[in-house]
Design goal:
This protein is mainly alpha-helical. The chain is 58% helix and 11% strand. It is elongated and about 60 Å long.
């Protein structure tokens, strides 16, 4: 099973969190099998989840496009774009 872990600090994940998860994979696998009553527990592989970084990059690109369209005087098309206050996280 692939397990994606969100890390706020890539350096900390690479130095501490990633190796810690790798060393604990046997324990975590045993506990999962025991608590979930599984006959066969899958191999566990931990990955750092980069979706938040990717989303931030896309947001910056969209913001820069929004700023460029506002600077060129295209107020009608730029006003149809949602801004950060329109986003509901949950």
């Amino acid at each position: 099973a692939r397990i994606y872990v969100t890390a706020l600090d890539q350096a900390h994940f690479d130095q501490v969190t990633g190796p810690g998860l790798k060393s604990a994979v046997g324990f975590v696998r045993t506990e999962l099998g025991r608590r979930l009553n599984l006959r066969y527990t899958p191999e566990l592989v931990f990955y750092r989840d980069t979706s938040a970084e990717y989303g931030n990059r896309i947001e910056k690109l969209l913001d820069s496009l929004h700023e460029e369209s506002g600077a060129s005087g295209e107020t009608e098309s730029s006003s149809s774009l949602p801004n950060k206050s329109d986003i509901v996280e949950g």
